[in-house]
Amino acid sequence: MSENEKSSAVLSENECWVRLGTQEVGRLVTSVGEVIDVVPINFVLDGRSIVFRTAAGSKLVELTINSSVLFEVDEVGETEGWSVVARGTARALEQEDEVLAAERLPLRPFVSTLKPTFVRIDIESLTGRAYEFGPEPRREDQQEG
Q: Could you tell me the pTM of the whole model?
């Protein structure tokens, strides 16, 4: 086993859900044509989906054009960290019952702006890795594979 393999571990899907649920801010990745955007957003888990709020603007337009998104969260400490990436489909909630249910979630904008649109990301896959930090190994100590 190489030093790289010892310093990182693949998280199970359940471990990814648990870690995802410990965070309030993640990064939404959208793609339209050759334009890729990454924006930080606050969110909550609602069952096995992610819900966030937004206002009219480029983020909402991009989700309308291409609903396939990535969503990433992580946590970095002094000696270890982890990262979880969700792949899914985002859609603005429009049905009255969906909006009313979303309004009951503990989700408020972090910044003082009106964000009237709720968006749900239905997760299609969830992957993650945990990392142990340390000094870079010396090249001369590494064995050729």
A: 0.85
Q: Give the Cα separation of 86 and 129 in Å (integer).
A: 12
Helix (H, G, I), strand (E, B) or coil at 18: helix
pLDDT for the residue numbered 1: 44
What whole-number distance in Å separates Cα of residue 110 and Cα of residue 133? Answer: 31
CA–CA dist 54, 51 (Å, integer) = 10
Backbone φ and ψ for 18, nearest 5 degrees, come out as: -60, -50
DSSP state of 139: G
Query: Rounded to an integer, what distance in angstroms lies between the CA atom of residue 109 and that of residue 107?
Result: 7
Backbone angles phi, psi at 74, to 5 degrees: -155, 170
Among 60, 64, 51, which Cα is nearest to 24's?
51
Is 37 in a helix, a strand, or coil?
strand
pLDDT digits (tens, 9 = 90+) for 119-145: 999 999 999 999 998 777 777 766 655
